[in-house]
Design a protein that fits this description.
Blueprint: E1 6-7, H1 19-24, E2 30-32, E3 37-39, H2 44-50, E4 55-56, E5 70-71, E6 87-89, H3 97-107, E7 110-115, H4 121-126, E8 133-137, E9 140-144, E10 150-153, E11 158-163, H5 165-173, E12 179-183, H6 187-197
The protein binds S-adenosylmethionine.
S-adenosylmethionine (SAM) binds next to strand 3.
Amino acid sequence: MKKSFIRKIAGDTDSVGSHKTIKLGNFRHDRNLEHGKEEWLTPPEIIRAFGPFDLDPCAPVKRPWATAVNHYTIEDDGLLRPWHGLVWCNPPYGPKTGDWLAKCAAHGNCLALVFARTETQAFQKWVWPFAKSLFFISGRLSFCHVSGDPGGTAGAPSVLIAYGDLADQRLRDNQIIAGQYLQSLPSKLIRLRLKNSNK
Ligand SMILES: C[S@@+](CC[C@H](N)C(=O)[O-])C[C@H]1O[C@@H](n2cnc3c(N)ncnc32)[C@H](O)[C@@H]1O
């Protein structure tokens, strides 16, 4: 297995904390000059390991490789368009990430890639209650520039989130990417069980 797109981290401290630490790390935001938006592309090894996907609803306008059979870009506004099939979603990072995770949860057939910031409101609201399983990637990813070249090492660890059975199957079938697979019992189910056990 090629590991160049993953950096091993031994006991560093900049992976925890506020969003500010992301900016202080060596994770560089790549500016799309046409749109002024940030572009952090998924390393192709990840797409190969967990794909194929039917749709990437948030793909770059100019992309060095396909991430799915169909792509929406910022010009389509993939948040507003209908989603179909198994979706790959490495969403725009920042305050809008929660909106994308909400749509992943509503679609229910999606593999999402975000920073493993389990403390954030977006994670609490749209990951734990809806995810079928999660895969915490070992080390840190090097996301790619729109040129296809690898960027700096991410300032935080990444997690893959499976919404639905098919995405969960992709995580369980993975024999390539190192990390920790965890089944998630959506917290709504836990609440329901607790409620029923009180009857
Ligand atoms: C973190 S990058 C991930 C790119 C790609 N999904 C991948 O996995 O490599 C987020 C992408 O979302 C795009 N984007 C931002 N807002 C969008 C929108 N409203 N609709 C569709 N794409 C959008 C950006 O241009 C950028 O390419």
